[in-house]
Amino acid sequence: MVKVGIVGGTGYTGVELLRLLAVHPQVELQVITSRSEAGGAVSALFPNLRGFVDLPFSSPDSASLRQCDLVFFATPNGIAMSMTRELLDAGVRVIDLAADFRFKNAALWEQWYGIPHACPELLAEAVYGLPEMNREQLRDARLVANPGCYPTAVTLGFLPLLEAVVVDGMHLIADAKSGVSGAGRKAEIGYLFCEAGDNMKAYGVAGHRHLPEILQNLALAAGSAPGLTFIPHLTPMIRGIHATLYARLQKEVDLQGLFHSRYKDEPFVDILPAGSLPETRSVRGCNTCRIAVHRPGQGDTVVVLSVIDNLVKGAAGQAVQNMNILFGLEETVGLYNVPLLP
Amino acid sequence: MVKVGIVGGTGYTGVELLRLLAVHPQVELQVITSRSEAGGAVSALFPNLRGFVDLPFSSPDSASLRQCDLVFFATPNGIAMSMTRELLDAGVRVIDLAADFRFKNAALWEQWYGIPHACPELLAEAVYGLPEMNREQLRDARLVANPGCYPTAVTLGFLPLLEAVVVDGMHLIADAKSGVSGAGRKAEIGYLFCEAGDNMKAYGVAGHRHLPEILQNLALAAGSAPGLTFIPHLTPMIRGIHATLYARLQKEVDLQGLFHSRYKDEPFVDILPAGSLPETRSVRGCNTCRIAVHRPGQGDTVVVLSVIDNLVKGAAGQAVQNMNILFGLEETVGLYNVPLLP
Amino acid sequence: MVKVGIVGGTGYTGVELLRLLAVHPQVELQVITSRSEAGGAVSALFPNLRGFVDLPFSSPDSASLRQCDLVFFATPNGIAMSMTRELLDAGVRVIDLAADFRFKNAALWEQWYGIPHACPELLAEAVYGLPEMNREQLRDARLVANPGCYPTAVTLGFLPLLEAVVVDGMHLIADAKSGVSGAGRKAEIGYLFCEAGDNMKAYGVAGHRHLPEILQNLALAAGSAPGLTFIPHLTPMIRGIHATLYARLQKEVDLQGLFHSRYKDEPFVDILPAGSLPETRSVRGCNTCRIAVHRPGQGDTVVVLSVIDNLVKGAAGQAVQNMNILFGLEETVGLYNVPLLP
Amino acid sequence: MVKVGIVGGTGYTGVELLRLLAVHPQVELQVITSRSEAGGAVSALFPNLRGFVDLPFSSPDSASLRQCDLVFFATPNGIAMSMTRELLDAGVRVIDLAADFRFKNAALWEQWYGIPHACPELLAEAVYGLPEMNREQLRDARLVANPGCYPTAVTLGFLPLLEAVVVDGMHLIADAKSGVSGAGRKAEIGYLFCEAGDNMKAYGVAGHRHLPEILQNLALAAGSAPGLTFIPHLTPMIRGIHATLYARLQKEVDLQGLFHSRYKDEPFVDILPAGSLPETRSVRGCNTCRIAVHRPGQGDTVVVLSVIDNLVKGAAGQAVQNMNILFGLEETVGLYNVPLLP
């Protein structure tokens, strides 16, 4: 049994992590911290957990966390970096679901997140937790930077094209649509039911924090710095990301074969039959990324459709997948959920 | 392993049954029939089942069904009654998720469903599959009439009050709100996104088929024929029933204690702490009915709030619960799902 | 032309008032105040008003307000009462869309709103702005207390029954369902898209502020204090209230005729044909209350279904209707909007 | 007064046309036909029209239509072309909201719509009713082909760029998101609340009927045949199209100035301030197209965001705008609606 602690369990990433870990057969949930909710029952805040999670929230307390094998940070950006060093020194492994350890370059972090980095010396060690890119490095990782939701959907969609060098990597376009839970459980006007409901809009056009993260991934895949226009959109649904990716083909290739072959051994990437149109609800509540690849009118533009549940493969599910890899468990254990449809 | 067949797997009840049975550790799915989809892959119709259900739909075929231990009917009303006799004679047990066997009185069936009953002689034998009322009879049942969604939510809410004879049973009111999936997966204008979305309305005010079903249940609980005004409402959500029940108290009673005591051994009825306000999403995807009981202003009107997922405790989940009871399995096996929130 | 000022134009009531007044042919919009948004363009906050409202928000400033013929308060509870005396003294008429002047009894105000009343001496003069009850008094009113949304829908539904003394007034039940805009444009977790979406729940069961307001209305109609159980529900739609009202008949009566006759001269109450089921979307964006009256199974329980747009007849539209009455305009001017469907 | 007839008033385009025409001060509604609903009250089908439209549906009847000044066809594709010749000969002008007269090339029609064209000789005369392109020709038109919803949003967004020849016209990308009402009021499984709700998916990737229509427009604007990848997406909202357009810049240009200057005299195109992010709800119920133009990271990709209400500027509103032009009325009369927000 892996003894697990969660720091910051009051957001959507936290409750989703609890949903998955509560029934994970090889996890023992030790402690869930929340400064604001300390002392309250987790199930009072999240009534879906009644009968599954009996723990109360406790104050962030390094002693109890140091007794865990693994600590997940489901905190806002900038928290994990202040506590990770101490936990690693105590032999605890860490998976951060925020952005603190996603960049290799501390200056890039500071530019996009506006906070000096508390432990830049750990950035080199941290493994970016996209198993489809970094599975081997993850096996021995002490510190995992769990990817962002958009970066997961977009990277998995572009990866085969860039690795095979069949498209113009300098003019990629990612038009992404996210459900509102991607914004987190924050009391902001813009995410009210009456503001985000029955409405569609783009945001972050001038520069979204996930842009440099995606670029870092794509550069690794392509072997050189790519060019990407990334336009995220707020969509009136609760969960789900639908990324529609556009690239210009530079050589003839069997696209369907390329994608199948790249992901044939991946338990959580599902390449759909040619002509398919993935729906976000087809992955609601599950850790799978479903991808279809198209070439409209047999022209030179390839269109990749990539869907994930932003809270699962885009956050908590991927974190559990990373945990399974870190601790040598079967990679799919605890993640064998049938998506909820309708 | 229970060898299971499903007749009519193309509706929401069918796909939900498949979601639950696909990962049930003691079930072997043998056959899924659909006249309209025969030959097609189940996962082509329901993309959430990709990787979980490999069976194709087959034509309704008594030979393959006769080799099952249990056949679920997830068909429109009036189908099960034409095939049940033959299956029972072949030693197959039957759980009907439609209404064919819910009434003890064939005339009542004919009045409300407008079709002569094909096997009225089986009505006496059929056990109404609400385990909280009929668990003992279910253990040996050959034929189970799985309850309707509204009847489940309303009956469980009124049951303690009527059994304890503490309210005026002649003037009960059930104001129920259902998600749109309760109408099934039918191509009808009224259930389009643009008709049912961002809208609320009552329906069936002049008489809904679930009214006599509820009355039959309440009469058994009360020991005499009750009076009920039942007003269902179509609510712009996908899953969930919220039943708000009103009754006039006729004697002093510890309401909270009464409900706790009635359901203390029930694995799928959760009595919430005093003052609670259950939400439908707190049971999304799970088999639990959550109930809160209130007495506003300490007056003589008791208000019971009862929520279920209409497709789980109101249909497929309850059917699996009944299957578990019929075959002597642990009652909760395969139903230990954490509700999806948000 | 009526010179109009609005205090507090940043909530949903404010923007709705602006939507209606911007195209009202006999209104000249003079000033819109907002402490938090002062200096900003109204249309920057509410992009639907681009091209219709060119005014900026200004600081609350009694000088500019004193030059108006009429000031609307679209503020939180407790603001209007601190500014009304000065405006009335300057000859400005006031319509308060909040609750400050709804109760005749200052103690009742303090009990439910938890703030001492700043000008209890004005409560007797204030006219409760439900034209269907108080049209004559409104003609000469200086100060109008615009009704709450639930009180409007519920009062209009019960009024004919209580005035005609045909039901048991001591055991009335109002089961009301409101869209989320009823909660206002407030940054609170509970009204986020991911909290209120795809979900239904009751709230305020222990006592909602609209309960004493409804009781005050019903007492006037009935001639004596009634008894009411009022259970509001949060419904995943943006606009709309659906009130389902239950009462016990005490004498035979032609219900359809009673309702028709009570409201035959009312421009904004529409009694539907017998057997109708009103939908909230049938009044989306308009000032009409649509009502259907039923007697299920010809029993002794009468069921009234009453729908309004909570932001129009339940707030801003009714305020404009009151303005029209106060200033001797045609009552329907500026309110002749066709509801938006779908 | 323009005497108006509507053929086929039972879809969303029809009810929206009725919403606008019912309060248009210079229109006299003479006849509304529907084969399926003949004899029924329009307001029984569309309860929002109660009190505004008293006409019943009548059978399609050329005599009554021939007495109109103008007939709108709000019918499925292929109906208008069978009746238009007769009406034109009788001196009646025609605006077809379907696709029958949108293509100049009958072969193209037959390829995409799969029906032989009934009157190809009228295609040359028909004026494509996008006033921003064809206002002068519309003034004297007898026959107007009202544009499709996607073509309106996409064409208006690309127009300034192509006319000024500042982008690579051979590699345009239009990623468009539509509300479900774009699919019409049709009883099809895919548009049910429980299928289209809480879900996002692309469709028509292999070829959507609006692609050749957009290409025809863009070719006129560019002076040569362009290349376009067009990916429409079904979005869980009722109304609205959000088109996100991508093009590669080929010369330096003041984008904001270019768009302002192109549309400065257009009453229904609103160029937003630099940096703006238009929302579909900002045009809900109104005839305006709002456009913002961006150049992310000052790279060579221009991103245009264009929003319309698909039922208004994308259908019925644009048809009314065309009617106003045809009959020499003020172009905005009857279209001065403030969008409904929230």
Protein model, in words:
The structure is a homotetramer of 342-residue chains. Chain A is an alpha/beta fold and 342 residues long. Chain A is 30% helix and 20% strand. Chain A has eleven helices and 14 strands. Chain A has helices at 12-21, 42-45, 62-66, 80-89, 106-113, 131-139, 149-163, 193-196, 210-222, 255-263, 312-326, and strands at residues 2-7, 27-33, 57-58, 70-73, 93-96, 127-128, 143-145, 172-178, 201-202, 228-234, 241-248, 269-271, 289-294, 301-308. In chain A, the strands form two sheets. In chain A, strands 3-2-1-4-5-7-6 form a seven-stranded parallel sheet, with helices on both faces. A seven-stranded mixed sheet of chain A has the order 9-10-8-11-14-13-12. In chain A, α6 (131-139) packs parallel to α11 and α7 runs parallel beside α9. Chain A starts with a strand and ends in a 16-residue tail after the last helix. Chains in contact: A-B, A-C, A-D, B-C, B-D, C-D. Chain B binds chain D through residues 12, 179-181, 185-189, 191-198, 236, 238, and chain D through 12, 179-181, 185-189, 191-198, 236, 238.
Query: What letter string, H or E per element, gives the SSE order of chain A?
Result: EHEHEHEHEHEHEHEHEHEEHEEEH
Oligomer: homotetramer
Assign a percent range to the helix content of chain A: 25-40%
Unreliable stretches of chain A, pLDDT < 50, 5 or more residues? none
Q: Tell me the distance between the termini of chain A.
A: 34 Å
Largest sheet of chain A: 7 strands, parallel
Describe the strand arrangement of the main beta sheet of chain A, using strand numbers.
3-2-1-4-5-7-6
Biggest interface reads: A-D, 48 and 48 residues
Structural class of chain A: alpha/beta
Total count of strands of chain A: 14
Q: Give the strand content of chain A.
A: 15-25%
Total helical segments of chain A: 11
Chain-averaged pLDDT of chain A: 97
- Rg of chain A: 19 Å
CA-based shape of chain A:
globular
